[in-house]
Amino acid sequence: MAIETISLSGKKKEVSNKKMNFWESLYLIAIFKGLMITIKHLFKRKVTIKYPEQTRSLSPVYRGQHTLMRDDEGRERCTACGLCALSCPAEAITMKAAERKPEEKHLYREEKYAEIYEINMLRCIFCGLCEEACPKQAIYLTKSRTMVKAQTDREDFIYGKDKLVMPLDMAIKNTQNQAAN
Amino acid sequence: MLTLFYILSAITLGTAFLTIFSKNPIHSAIYLVLCFFSIAGHYLMFNAQFLAIVHIIVYSGAIMILMLFTIMLMNLNKEGEKSKNAWSQIAAVISFCLLALVLLATFIKAQQPEYNYATKGADFQSIKVLGQVLLNDYMVPFEFASVLLLVSMIGAVLLSKKEHINN
Amino acid sequence: MEEAIIIEKSVIIIAVFALTMLMAMYSTLAERKIAAWLQDRVGPNRAGKGGILQPLADGLKLFAKEEFVPNTPNKFLFFVGPAISMSMALMTSAVLPWGDKLHLFGRDIILQATDIDVALLYVFGVLSVSVYGIMIGGWASNNKFSLMSAMRAASQMISYEVAMGLSIIALIMMTGTLSIREIALGQNGMNWNVFYQPVGFLIFLICSFAEANRTPFDLAECEAELIGGYHTEYSSMKMGFYLFAEYAAMFISSTILAVLYFGAYNYPGMDWAEKNWGVNIANVIGIFVLFIKICFFIFFYMWVRWTIPRFRYDQLMRLGWKALIPLSIANIIITGIVMLLVD
Can you give the residue ranges of the 4Fe-4S ferredoxin-type domain (chain A) (predicted)? Predict the structure, then answer.
């Protein structure tokens, strides 16, 4: 097969410069055909999603706002190793580690935990490298199912632990679901 | 009716003078358009609807637009116009005075028209009557006018084609 | 009796004026909605239910905009431009019949502001004067793109006026009158002019697209070449006037198309309705029928806008001078021959 005749999309059309006959040169029929095509679209289903009322369903691998995970007992998994901050290409993550006290055993899984954990959402490019780097499966971008909202103040984009750590009731629900399964 | 006539006349004369006196050629053209409109108003006062509308279509709607068109494109706003030399100025004044004299003389000598318009009961503002008069009684002058227009059209085409002929 | 006529006419004039404004307002919404639907979108749907208040919101926005005046030596002409456009767009409706007659308060009320003998010529006169709005506005803007666009619009409108006038002559020959009311009356029943003058109708349709500066002949507002066209320098309500005038002109030319060629307010069975239901009901239906026709033509304008791409300037001129004018002259001659043969 010659290269000229190959049509990868299957929509290839041969065009020619042949002389138009009288009726074609009037363009009236062509215009009428065009009108019919456009009128067909008038009755087609519209693909628009009316955003605030309807939201598009997120794909399973959608990367949105980060979540700092809790384990089955509701304890924070993060051990403040700093690998996520290291792997972050945009340098969006900062943290400060602290040692766990004996009475905090029900709060943190490991002996060391992140006292402060902040992500600058203006810097974050949602690449997911932090998720890959984490040895404790503590940070996920796919679990929150929310997008980072727009703000009017730069300070508001720095998300602390109050916004990032998985809410307790969500952790409880997860545990219940696992028990049921 | 009389006040309307005076107002219209004032507009006609005023805009006509402004046409001559305004420095900017575009302003002058626009004043001329206004002048044409007020003349159409005069026609309407004679109950000559057809004439008034045709006057607007032809003069304001076609001729003046083409004129404005040329003036706008030629950009005559610059102060490039040279004043004419003294001889031509004197000649212009003299010829104007002569013309004015002749006109004055005719107006003074002219007698009041004493025709009795034949009242046939026909509606002379109706275009039907107008058409019949134009194409029955005045057929030849009417057709001559069309030939005149044709000649001017051919002349315009010829002028625009001149460059191509020389090449 | 004299006062009654004055009241009657002023009511009709105010009604027609309000109607033109309303239709022009909602044409802006219809334009956006139909554009959206033809492109598989939804269109404006936030202001009011289904976007029904969108024109009000647009108007409010335009009023609130900064009144910008460019540095031009002709401020007065700059203001005059949109005013001429607007008033000319509204003036045509004076001679259009919106229905035959109503029988109210013991008198026949003709549903028309005025029925003059030279109504059709009046329409053409107003059309030709409306070019001034664009020309003066474009020139006074002191912007070369505005000027160029005004020149384009003016030359296009003058050129197509010729073909339009010639196409209408065949119709006048057939009906034997220049009064639009008589033309409308002559199309009783299904006796519509479009069946007798299909070529004339086609030419008239194409020319009215060009006269209204609508796509495919919207060279005056060709964004890629001329920024925004003749109203580039306009803002706030002066801009609104130009846009509004365009839509009002569209409504009026749709009305003219419907009245001259598509039987105006006539519908099959009008005589029967008049006999059985009375004059008033038959004519109220007639007014509605006329509006359906007008709305169809407005829709057609928009439909064509989203179907056919813009012409090039030389194509536009070739179509006007080399195709439409000879065709309309041929149409006149053929109409004359057929009329002679039929007689």
Answer: 69-98, 115-144
Q: Which A-chain residues 10-49 have CB contacts (< 8 A) with chain C?
A: 31, 34-35, 37-39, 41-42, 44, 46-48
The pTM for the full model equals: 0.79
Per-domain residue ranges of chain B? 1-77, 123-167
Contact A63, A128 (CB under 8 A): yes
Cα A110 to Cα A151: distance, rounded to the nearest angstrom:
34
Question: A111 among the known binding-site residues?
Answer: no
d(CA B74, CA B112): 47
pLDDT at position B148 is 93
pLDDT at C295 over 70: yes
Which residue on chain A is closest to C37 by alpha carbon?
A: A42
Q: Do C128 and B54 touch (CB under 8 A)?
A: no
Q: What residue numbers bound the domain in which C92 lies?
A: 57-342
Q: Does C315 lie at the interface with A, CB-CB under 8 angstroms? A: no
Note whether A35 contacts C34, CB cutoff 8 Å: no
Q: Round to whole Å and give the CA distance between C218 and C160.
A: 13
Q: How does pLDDT run across C102-126, given as a tens digit for each residue?
A: 777 777 777 787 777 788 888 888 8
Between CA C56 and CA C272 the distance in angstroms is 42
Residues of chain C with C-beta less than 8 angstroms from the C-beta of A52: none
Does the distance separating the beta carbons of C34 and A46 come in below 8 Å? no
Per 3-state DSSP, what percentage of chain C is helix, strand, and coil (rounded to 5)? 75, 0, 25
Region B36-62: mean pLDDT is 86
Quick one: tokens of C297?
Answer: 């033509």
**H or E element, residue C108:** strand C107-110
Domains identified in chain A and CATH numbers: 67-180 (3.30.70.3270)
Question: Which residues in chain C are closer than 8 Å to B57, comparing Cβ atoms?
Answer: 121, 124-125, 128
C253 found inside a domain: yes
Stated as kind and residue range, the H or E segment containing B103 is: helix B86-109
Rg of chain A's alpha carbons, rounded to an integer? 28
Residue B117 has pLDDT above 60, yes or no: no
Structurally, chain C folds into a number of domains equal to 1
Does residue A20 have a known ligand-binding role? no
For domain B1-77, the CATH architecture is Up-down Bundle (1.20)
Complete DSSP assignment for A45-68 = PP----TTTS-PPPPTT---S-EE
Name chain A contacts of C41, Cβ cutoff 8 Å: 46, 48
